[in-house]
Design goal:
The protein has one domain. Helices cover 83% and strands 0% of the residues. The chain has seven helices and no strands. Helix 1 runs antiparallel to helix 4 and helix 1 runs antiparallel to helix 6. The longest helix has 35 residues. The termini are close together.
């Protein structure tokens, strides 16, 4: 179905790029801009700032992919040829929203973890940890990878829509 195929592209073009943008160390910028001092004055420690950044990354990634996904879902519903197809598309749209939330949470947490592990090279680390295992799957199909996990989730959504259509 069109909405699931488009969601696969959105996952990595939109959400993937948003994850890359959040996989950077922002502590130096916080120190330079006075955010760290302001947070200390308000009674927050660096742990609270890290948690807030992680949640913000998850939110930004989810929201960035959610807006075009809603448009695609609306288009798929408008192009449905029957009531059964519309119901299948509606169920897939609901599943797509859940998929995007899971995608945002996983990529956001992974991006912030990469930024914490390698402050200067968080983006490269994220790219290597996502793309490397996925490329290794072409030689060793049992290697786990993040794109393969989300591809499996999308195929389940696809089958769910086909069962109802």
């Amino acid at each position: 179905m069109l909405s699931i195929e488009a969601l696969a592209w959105l996952s990595w073009l939109v959400a993937g790029l948003a994850a890359l943008s959040t996989a950077q160390d922002l502590s130096a910028r916080d120190d330079r801009d006075g955010i760290t001092t302001l947070l200390r004055q308000r009674g927050y420690d660096s742990r609270a700032r890290r948690r807030a950044r992680c949640l913000a990354s998850m939110y930004v990634i989810t929201r960035t992919a959610l807006v075009p996904a809603l448009g695609i879902c609306a288009l798929a519903l408008a192009l449905a040829k029957s009531l059964g197809a519309a119901a299948a598309h509606a169920l897939q749209c609901a599943g797509s929203l859940g998929y995007l939330v899971v995608l945002g949470v996983v990529l956001g947490a992974f991006a912030r973890w990469c930024a914490a592990i390698s402050p200067r090279h968080g983006r490269a680390l994220l790219l290597g940890l996502v793309v490397g295992p996925h490329l290794a799957r072409s030689v060793w199909p049992t290697v786990p990878s993040v794109p393969a996990l989300f591809s499996a989730l999308l195929s389940h959504l696809q089958r769910l829509g086909e069962l109802l259509a």
